[in-house]
TrEMBL record:
Protein name in the entry: AF4/FMR2 family member lilli
Top-rank taxon: Eukaryota
Main location: nucleus
Function: Has a role in transcriptional regulation. Acts in parallel with the Ras/MAPK and the PI3K/PKB pathways in the control of cell identity and cellular growth. Essential for regulation of the cytoskeleton and cell growth but not for cell proliferation or growth rate. Required specifically for the microtubule-based basal transport of lipid droplets. Plays a partially redundant function downstream of Raf in cell fate specification in the developing eye. Pair-rule protein that regulates embryonic cellularization, gastrulation and segmentation.
Ranges for domain AF4/FMR2 C-terminal homology: 5-240
GO cellular component terms attached to this protein's record: super elongation complex
Annotated transmembrane regions: none
């Protein structure tokens, strides 16, 4: 509980600093700092039951991911008044953010994965039961055909309406939410990898992080992802503070924006 409170307090402090910051590069770095400490707080949530623990962790990670996505999109919306250093830092900050988002989305899936397996088995059983009931219904209807069951020959279209029990609908809806997290985790990770492939600046940055922190994968433990993020943020902040008074260097290949 003490660590949870500590990380929450640090996250809130970084948010206040970010809200007050007028420099857009410093602001996004403070917001990414904030996100990391919220993620770390999720690892130290205390709860009376495993189920409620997972729900609280899920909520923190989901909300943090939404914040990261929002602040990154805001930083990515460049205008004519943006400084050259904004453009120079943009691709690496976005790449770092995408890797964070991908890992968070994977963990959203992972937290719900056991429920997803249970729901899948329930849906399979329900589907078999529904199919059996439909066959029985169609068999009895075949013995007593009604005018409403016929299809008119001059009809150009046929509309099929599928009805299902509310429980089946809710299970399928939850399955989609869970599997969407996994799908977007992979999509965003691939996007980050492609961005690094077309930018020498991004590639050098990611390669340097992997030498220090080890290679990051989308299913990495949250603690490793946080260490990776904090290292990247510290490097970008140090570079920006050291060099922002000078013109930014020009990379051989244009960075992906």
């Amino acid at each position: 509980r003490c660590l949870y409170d500590f990380y929450q307090s640090v996250a809130k402090s970084q948010k206040r600093k970010g809200d007050a910051e007028t420099d857009r590069v410093n602001r996004i770095l403070l917001y990414l700092d904030m996100a990391v400490y919220y993620i770390l707080s999720a690892k130290h949530v205390s709860s009376v039951s495993p189920g409620s623990l997972g729900n609280r962790q899920y909520s923190i990670i989901r909300e943090t991911n939404e914040i990261v996505k929002k602040v990154t999109n805001s930083f990515s919306s460049v205008s004519e008044g943006c400084s050259p250093w904004h453009f120079h830092m943009l691709s690496r900050i976005k790449n770092l953010s995408l890797r964070c988002q991908s890992t968070l989305l994977y963990h959203l899936y992972h937290i719900r994965s056991q429920n997803a397996f249970k729901s899948y088995n329930m849906l399979v059983q329900m589907d078999a039961q529904i199919q059996e009931e439909q066959q029985q219904h169609n068999g009895s209807a075949g013995n007593n055909p009604s005018p409403g069951s016929s299809v008119h020959s001059n009809s150009n279209q046929s509309v099929t309406v599928v009805t299902m029990p509310t429980k089946v609908y809710e299970l399928q809806r939850q399955q989609l939410k869970t599997l969407h997290s996994l799908m977007w985790s992979h999509r965003i990770w691939q996007d980050a990898a492609k961005r690094a492939d077309i930018s020498t600046t991004d590639l050098a940055f990611i390669s340097g992080l992997e030498k220090v922190c080890g290679q990051l994968f989308l299913d990495a433990p949250l603690e490793k992802m946080c260490a990776y993020m904090l290292t990247g943020i510290a490097w970008l902040r140090a570079e920006y503070e050291r060099e922002k008074g000078r013109p930014p260097p020009v990379s051989k290949r244009a960075a992906a924006v």
